[in-house]
Write a structure and sequence with these properties.
Carbamate kinase; 8-stranded mixed sheet; about 35% helix; globular; binds adenosine-5'-triphosphate; binds magnesium ion
């Protein structure tokens, strides 16, 4: 099977945990894997150390996103494709996994249309149209290099940065990137690893959802998790058979999720 696994920034402390990497090492004996990673908190921390306080905006549908001006996209690229991507490469190499760190810029893996305008809602609910900055919506995926690496037994680790039409780097969402890559590569499963056990409703982690059911409860799902559910639905629409949302903080996160021991499964029906 081909698995696309997104590691939330929420579970990355100095790269990938050794429990995660040991589990991954077992998984790749039988499956092909592409990793995508997040890392927003680290970007915010380092930007602040550099004297560049980060601003966040809320969209009318409740999505929180980083306001990404020129300096911010440079810091984002440094931290995500530099520090974090390489920490994960090191953690995998240390346990004998042949890892190749890439960003969406490399060989145009991710191409995106720059958002020229964004609608931001302030604390009082007033809407304001602002410049889109260096954020984008992925429009095209070039899977060539990824297929080549997988075919030769390498494990690609992709940072969510996309190439604009003007060849600028754009900040794109990590969950969405993983979903779009999974769809484009016809992956069997999309696994979203985060810092909670799965999709929680009324205080309880729901073990199984159909896409119809999860759409109904989407308005009650908060911030970071609603992005995952949207991304999961997008992957299912693109032909991915199953989306698993689960904790990356347990001992065998991938094995347990694949065996439905933990986490939330979302399928078409
Ligand atoms: N209904 C819900 N069920 C589960 N988690 C929820 C729910 N509503 C909101 N959340 C929040 O979503 C968070 C997960 O998303 P978050 O974006 O913070 O992490 P991540 O995607 O793993 O990290 P990153 O965005 O840095 O890659 C959880 O920690 C939780 O607080
Ligand atoms: Mg997130």
């Amino acid at each position: 099977m081909l698995l696309v696994i997104k590691m939330g920034g929420s579970i990355l402390k100095e790269g990938a945990s050794s429990d995660f990497v040991s589990d991954l090492k077992e998984i790749i004996k039988d499956h092909s894997v592409i990793l995508v990673h997040g890392g927003g908190v680290e970007v915010t921390e380092i930007a602040s150390k550099l004297g560049k306080e980060q601003k966040f905006i809320m969209s009318p549908d409740g999505f929180r996103s980083r306001y990404t001006d020129k300096e911010t996209v440079e810091i984002y690229t440094m931290v995500m494709a530099g520090k974090l991507n390489k920490q994960i490469v090191l953690a995998l190499e240390a346990q004998g996994i042949n890892a190749v760190g890439l960003s969406g810029l490399d060989s145009g893996i991710l191409r995106a249309e720059r958002k020229t305008k964004l609608v931001a809602v302030d604390e009082r609910g007033r809407k304001k149209v602002i410049d889109g900055g260096y954020t984008g919506k992925i429009t095209q995926v070039n899977t060539g290099i990824l297929s080549l690496l997988l075919g030769e037994g390498y494990l690609p680790i992709v940072t969510p940065i996309a190439l604009s039409q003007a060849y600028d780097p754009l900040n794109v969402d990590g969950d969405r990137t993983a979903a779009i890559l999974a769809g484009a590569l016809k992956a069997d499963k999309l696994i979203l690893l985060t810092d909670v056990e799965g999709v929680v409703l009324n205080g309880v982690c729901v073990s199984k959802f159909s896409s119809t059911m999860v759409r109904e409860v989407l308005p009650t799902i908060g911030g970071g998790m609603s992005t995952k559910v949207h991304a999961g639905l997008e992957a299912l629409d693109q032909g991915v058979k199953e989306v698993l949302v689960t904790s990356g903080l347990v001992k065998q996160p991938i094995t347990l999720a694949l065996n439905y021991k933990i986490g939330t499964v979302i399928t078409i029906e």
